[in-house]
Design a protein that fits this description.
Layout: E1 7-13, H1 27-40, H2 52-69, E2 80-84, E3 97-103, E4 112-116, H3 119-124, H4 138-148, H5 151-154, E5 166-170
Antiparallel strand pairs: 1-2, 1-3, 2-5, 4-5
């Protein structure tokens, strides 16, 4: 994969560091953190609906099941999230947003999945788009990109729908540990 977009990008809050995941927390701790985000109203997460964590857990379980059906071998119950290709505007979701860039080949194809767009709209919207409700393998996402391109190229401002990037789900943190303090 020689295309420069075949890098994975992870956006995060500088003070907390990369690959901090709400799904890794107990439900009570995750609820407390979401409540804190909402009361402070500063970061993007503060805009999420009250049932966000419930929906997220359900979608992650569904994505995991779909990935296993396609031969994936997730090592965790939930993934870490990245984008395929850069989306530097995501840094604005954070008070002090930062970005990591990691080549896709650092990850075993059995531990990496994709949705065309963010997991939430990709799995929940019922608008007839052919990539809705589908979780892709590395091999499959290349064909989808050949057909539809990168959403961050054709939908920069989000006016053409909710797909603004290709989301990457990493189901093994072995190659991420070097980035975590």
């Amino acid at each position: 994969m020689s295309n420069p977009n075949f890098y994975l990008y992870h956006y995060y809050e500088e003070k907390t560091g990369p690959f901090r995941n709400l799904s890794a927390l107990s439900p009570d701790m995750a609820d407390q953190l979401m409540h804190k985000f909402k009361s402070e109203g500063v970061v993007f997460a503060s805009q999420r609906p009250d049932d966000y964590l419930t929906i997220r857990r359900d979608l992650e379980a569904r994505a995991r099941d779909l990935f296993i059906q396609k031969g994936g071998k997730p090592l965790h119950l939930y993934p870490h999230y990245l984008t395929l290709g850069p989306c530097s505007w995501i840094k604005k979701w954070y008070t002090e947003g930062r970005e990591l860039k990691i080549h896709i080949d650092e990850f075993d194809p059995e531990h990496i999945s994709f949705t065309y767009g963010d997991l939430f709209p990709a799995m929940r919207f019922k608008d007839g788009k052919p990539y809705r409700g589908i979780l892709y393998t590395k091999h499959e996402i290349i064909k989808i990109i050949e057909k539809y391109g990168f959403p961050q190229d054709w939908n920069v401002d989000g006016k053409l729908g909710p797909e603004r990037y290709i989301e990457v789900q990493i189901w093994d943190d072995k190659n991420l540990l070097k980035y975590i303090d």
